[in-house]
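Please check these two lines:
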Amino acid sequence: MNSRRDSTDGPEDVDATFAEIVAGLEREGVGRQAYPDEAEPDEGDEAEPARSVRPEGQPAVATADDDPDAYPDSDPDSDDPNDHYVPPEPPPLPALRPGTVAALLLIALGVVVLLFPGLFGLTGVIGTPLALIVMCSGAGWLILRMRNTDPPDSGWDDGAVL
């Protein structure tokens, strides 16, 4: 492995090269924000108040405090930026089918046998494997009962269906 300290792959002074590139782009007008509806101020017009400048030299981001009329719905005293959004009510859960209820009961029975094998007159040596078999059977039944059909409101083009 070659671990040279003095690499000849790039310029010696990276900061100076970067400054040259940025200066060339600024001369070409890259990065300027020109809005067609804003006219250049005449010499007799009042000048805009100076805006704060970030360290990179770009103007700071406009906020509601700068121009309250530009953001009519904003409340400068509000801490939550999403306080205006109210999500819709979720659709109701569908009713459980009898097979689903039976599979869930099998899983619950497996948990009870696993935790309290003495309720059924079993020892831990026999109750633990039996409980695991019952729980896996309930989970397998749920998996086998999963629907793989299109939703009733799907059209001819479902898009990507997973």
The longest helix spans residues 124-144.
